[in-house]
Every structure is written in C-alpha cells, then in structure tokens.
Amino acid sequence: MKLAICHLYPDLLDLYGDRGNILTLAARCRWRGIEPVIQKASLGEDLDFMGMDILFIGGGSDREQGLLVQDLMRRENELRKAIENGLVVLSICGGYQMLGKYYQMTNGERIDGLGILDIWTIAGAKRLIGNVVVELDEKKSSGNSNKFRTMVGFENHSGKTYLGEGISPLGKVLFGHGNNGEDSGEGVRHLNVFGTYLHGPLLPKNPHLADLLLELAIQRRGVDTSLMELDDCLEDLAHKAMVKRLLKQA
Amino acid sequence: MKRTWRFWLALWAGKIITMGLLVTGKKGTTLPGKIANWIDPQIMRHLSVAYTDGIIMVTGTNGKTTTANLLASILRQAGKVFAFNQAGANLVTGITGALIQNTGWNGLSQASLALLEVDEATVPKFCEQVSPSLAIVTNFFRDQLDRYGELDTTVRMVKGSLPKETVLVLNADDPLVAQFGTNHNQAIYYGVERTPDSQGDSQETREARFCPGCGTALDYTLFHYGQLGIFKCSGCGFHRPEPEILAKDVHLDEGLMLFQVDEVAFRIALQGYYNLYNALAALTAARELGFKDKVIEKGLRVFIPQAGRMERFSLPEGDITLTLVKNPTGFDQVIQTMIGVDRPLGILIGINDLAADGRDISWLWDVNFERLGTHEARIQKVVCTGLRAEDIALRLKYAGVSVEKLILEHSLTGALKMLTGSRAEGEAWFILPTYTLLFPLREIVEDRQKSAGLSNSGAKERGEEARA
Fold it and tell me: Out of A157, A177, A199, A208, which one is annotated catalytic?
C-alpha cells in the first residue's frame, strides 16, 4: 500500500524543525511496509487535494506566510471539498491560523484566512513561548494506539487563537499557554483536520498522534486494516521525560 | 558628552568589584559591568570615547568568537595593545566589564583600540552609545529563535542600528549579510571562490532562499554551505557582490586549512569551511586597519583554537575531539567533518535546553543527521546525554541510526565512560555538547587527560609550529 503525504510549501513554511513531522510519518509508514509518497509542493504548483492522504501545513516567518495566503485562496474550494471527504490535515502554528477566518494585526487590520475552521486569531502583545503539556480530549484523539492521554511540544507564537461556538479544543493545557493563554484550550479538531500550536516537532514525541493520522488516512481509503504495533520504546521515553519534568515544575 | 559623577562612581564601583573578583580567584566581567550600568546607564558611551584608533565590532550568528580571536591574534603579532571582551562576554554587561578592565582609575584607557564581540540582539543597544569605526558581520543563521523571535527581525534590527559612518566588513556569500552594503557609505566584501565541498545544488536547511530586498526566490550557481554561495535575484537584480578579498585554491591538509588571497598563501589550524570565513573576516578587517600581509599571515597561522572549538584531547584510550554544537548549520558542518575523517565513529552528543542553549530544541530536526544515517555502518555507538538525551536519541533513530547503537546516559562521567569503554580499530571519538554542557564535559575530559600525565596534543603540536 502507498500513502500520499503532501508537505505544503516546505520552502516557505519550515520553521522550528516542522519537517520532523514528515520524517516521522514517512518512517512510521516504512516500518510497517506502507510506502510513503512525499510531495513537496511549492508555490503555484498543481495540487490534487482529493488524491492526497495526508496534508501537512507548517509555520513560517511573517513575511513568508503573507506570500502564500493568496496562493492558497485560489485553491480554497478544492481543499474544502477534500476535507469534507475526510482528507487528513495536520496544520501547525501559522498553518493552523491560516485555516481560520482571519488574523487581526495589532493595528486592527484583518488578513483573511481560508475560513475552513471556525476560529480566528488576534495578534497579542506578548510572545507565548515555552514547553507545553496538553491533556487530550478523549473523543478527539482516540485511535487504536491509545497509550498516552497527553501531548507534548514547544509553542512560539504571538497570535492568540479563539474558537467559535460549535467547535472545541484538542485538549486542555496542563503546562504552557495553548491557543490564547486564557481559556486553557489548545488546538482544534474538525472532521479530520487537526490544528495546533505545538512545534517540537509534534509527531516524533507524540507517536500516538502520528499513528492516529495514519489510521484516519487508511480508513478514508476504505481499507480495513489496523496498524501494526511498533517498538516505541524511545518515543515513549522522550514523551514521558517531558511530561514528568514539566508537571513537576507546574 | 561630559563625564558626570555617575560615570566616576560607576567606573570605580566596577573596578573595585573586578579587583574583588580577582582576589577571590574568580574571573568575570559580567558582574562589574552589571553594577556599573546600573549606576550609569550611559557608561559604554563615556568609556568608548577613549579609543582614538577606533572600535572594531564583530557580530553575526556564527563565528563571532573565532573571528574576534583570529583578529586578536593578528593584532598581537603587530604588537598592538587593545581592549578585548574575551570569552564571549558579548552582552552589554560583558562589554562594559571588558572596557572597565581596560580603563584606569583616572578614567584613561590603556589602549587606543578596542575589539568587541557583540551579540546580534545587543547591537542596537550597543550602537546607541558606541559608534564603531569598523563592523564585521559574519553571517545570519537560525539560532536560538526562542530568544529573538524570528530571523528577519534580528537582521532588520542589526541593519537599522549600524551608524552610516561605520565601515562595514561583510560576507559577500551570505545574501542576508551582503544586503547590508546596499545604501551604505563604505562596505568591503570578503568571499570564497569555491571549496572542495561546494555544490551546484544544496539539500541543507537554507535561511535566505528569498531575496532580502524584493522577496523573489534567489538563483544560485554554487552553494558553499547553508545559504552561503554565489547567488542572484531575477526580480530586482540584487546579487552576490564582487569580493575585494577572495579566497582561492581552498584545500585541507592534515588538520590544516590552506587558501590563497591575491597570490599570498595562508593557513589556519582549524577544520570546517565555516572557519575559512572567520579567517577571511579577520584578514579583511586587518587589511583595512593597514596591516601587512606578512603580519596577517603569521597571526592566522599561530592561532590556537579556543575551548571547545574542534579542540583535541589525548586520553590513554585514544584521542578525542570536542566541539560545541548550537544550530543546524554548525552541526551540519561538524557531521561533514566527522564523515570526512573516514574512520569508524564513536560519538557522544549532549543536548541541554537551558537559556544559554536555547529552550527550543526543535532545531535538531533541521540538522541533516540523515547523512550520518547513510554512513550507519561506520557508527560504532552514539552516547546521548543532557536534559534532552531522549530527544537526540529519537532524532537519530528517525535518521536511520539503529537503536542498538544508541546509548542513553544522563550522568556525564558515565557517558564519557560509555564512549571510551570500548574501541573499534581506528575508531575516532567526538564529543558534541550544547553550550551549558561544554564546560562540564571539557573539565571531565581534561581531568582524565591530566591524571594520565598526558597533554593537550593538538595545542602542543601547534605551539611548536608557532615557534618554528
């Protein structure tokens, strides 16, 4: 079996080691005999959202993010259709903000987002930086490999993201700031779209999330196979070391 | 500006604390600088007026300390007396402390020239008070983003704060640095024609793929390393400036790096092509200061690398190379050097995430460890230590190093034992720590070297050479 993983604009959106997420998804496919087909899509390149299995959108610096919002706007319809069809999307930081309705800058000016998620972001005065531990919402994150109830990572953002009424966060912040540093929520899940502020990168130390994305992608294909168990000894150690250290500090 | 009572109080307080520290056997310029700045926030301005021959500033992401030390070595060869903030004390407090140390109780300076390494984020504060006669800008890479926000901001901040009358010594091969010369009164460029590793295509993490002026993707005909190379913008015409100082015929020979500038042969006892740029920056500044090539050549040749920059130790079990790692570009260069050694490898990597290391360790995933993965058969073991030992082990697993070769050991003494406990035929050992692990690990290695009655092999050889 093959899985098509698209890394959107890696030449623009590749901050804070986010490419580690792609490396992790690819390795966890290969170790199970699934062939990962990685597409690194550049600005203006043809994209077939419907044919993809997993779409990854990372974060970039402000200048680079501005360059590509327009490019994505042109493809908004196709992306929306694919998402309604169950496309698995992982969006981080800037990528997460872009899927929302708008980003409001300090001067009050609003930059339109894609409006796929009912969220919006307001520029904050203070950068929210540091390690994060999140207690995951069971309904949003359950898959076959359900070994951790937590998610760990590193946040670095000045935008504060707020969620609309019908939508709830991926989990509750136990350490760190999360979406906005106010309501203790972090991230969001809508259909198979995951948004979060967590770099680190996210997936290496959260193998349960990596596997959840792979499972959802396989299910969308209509294939009825459960994922083979992997030896996650190192992944588990790295995850637990951070949870233990941070919750002791808290 | 007139010196006020605040200045004298600050100066004397600083000097008393410096003496106090000396008496108690401690070195340090940070505490005296801190107190002096608290008493007189304008003290750097008042101290700086004494340097009638000028103030040389060195800034950039990587290579500041090495560049400053190389230039200091040239200045010493020329018999110059100068103020210097050694040991990387490159924030306002450390710079003030160094200037105080060089100033007498009467407020007069012992030297007429100052050589100051200045942290990128400190440049605006520094230039507000001090107007450097010469400013060397080495390069801009992603480094401790959590401290500075994003790279763009840092570059803009540094560029905006450099006084118009300052002569700039710029790396022509780094687009982020080369742009500093646009609209500036006087800029001198240094660059490299090619190194044996220069490529037409680069897979490394690159900072400036886009023109700093207009945002168009840059076209490269050659990459030296990172985003350094020969570039051109098809949008606005910005391109790699023609370097006045151009290194040609670059090659390595037995731990030495050799190159030619204008038919003069130079050599330095440093590995890694990033050090070629550091030498070129020092050379360019020295020429601008009016020194002869003969003095410059000797200053570079006799330079002995400082602590933890490709430093060699001899243990009874074998030799160890110790080198600091702090960002993807630097680490990539170290990996390239290790692979170039062409022997079985035993590696100890220590990753901490304290403030001086950078709290965010995600940069480990921007390092091209996959290159180690492709030479997996040569790797005997990788001992992982530090607060983030698990993270670096995990990174290596995903880079293709087999889990059986990865050893987690949180104790530093234990980690060193794991490294030197067994040795394959010809195995080369490397210790690669982040900043806060560098000195603790160095101390352990040095103690073991001393107790075995051995001396720092690399430094000794170079010392003899310097006398010859």
Answer: A199
